[in-house]
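To assess whether ligand presence alters the predicted conformation, the chain was also submitted together with pyridoxal-5'-phosphate. Input:
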Amino acid sequence: MAIEFSSRVGRLPDYPVAGGYSLPDDVAMLASNESPWPPAPQVLEAAAKAAAHANRYPDPSNAALREALSRRYGVPANRIAVGNGSVDLLMAAGEALLEPGAELVYAWPAFSVYPHLPAASGATAIEVPLTADHKHDLDAMAAEITVATRLVIVCNPNNPTSTALPLDEITAFVEKVPPDVCLILDEAYIEFNLLDDPDASVDLLERHPNLVLLRTFSKAYGLAALRVGYALCGTESFVKAVHAVRQPFVVNAVASAAAIEALKHTDAVADRVEKTIVGRVELDEGLRALGIEPAESQANFCWFDLPESADEGEVVAGLSERGVLVRAGRALGREGALRVTYGTSAQNERFLAALGELL
Ligand SMILES: Cc1ncc(COP(=O)(O)O)c(C=O)c1O
């Protein structure tokens, strides 16, 4: 007899993980929207210093990290939640808000973890197709909100399509969402968005207690391996709810020390963002030279349809043979598309040369 698991385990979708973890260092890792540049030396020193006290449990309230985030954003620490990556907060939000009979609304294609929330909770997902230019259709999303809606997620800039909506459109949408419905603005890539000041959305929290801004140290801060995400919230009740459903020690002491130090090096973040935007211009121009029009990226990655004559699987395999890892659209919600993280200039050139050979 085999072990009998709960029915929810059978419902949970597999997260489409990227490969490449055991590949040699010279492979261009353009599949996971990470930073190609390592953390600042002071951040590594802070992590090493914290590791020396690894015999002690971390502070379960993560007070120092939440205080540091509070100073950075001007949001009171009691309205800031931290997590083991922002994915941890997303899943905790699903657990705290959803149950059978409840509905959640999000766009599709969007971040591949969102379908996990209805599967885990038994709630109903309303997936609203993106517009033809790969952006959120906020009017259509607003029209899907009913008395059963508990959670709405807007991914801005959107993964996997790289596109963003300007803050005035986001603001108009926030105003339409009923105050008893939680609205998560997933801003994992907000630092790379040139449409508005990346911190401008923080002001919305004062007027909208139902709003949560979800951010991460994994992208512009270059700390993906340490797993630190945070939620800037309109109300303390969200912080308490996600705290209640999780294990007591969500962010480890090494990760917390590194994140606190990283917040002091805004120059390093600005430098990474600037280099990414140079890469964005170079790589997108290179795609156009190959006859491909990418979506309008406001993120650290691009998204485009391959020419109809090309086979997605063959292109991804051919790139991999040439030492370049990218993500196939099929796993992300759109067959025939590719998602490619902007890397260093050398990696971007390598990708373009390889794609040119394959097409
Ligand atoms: C839109 C979006 N949100 C959240 C995350 C989660 O990031 P992390 O858990 O590393 O903070 C990602 C990661 O790729 C993402 O693309």
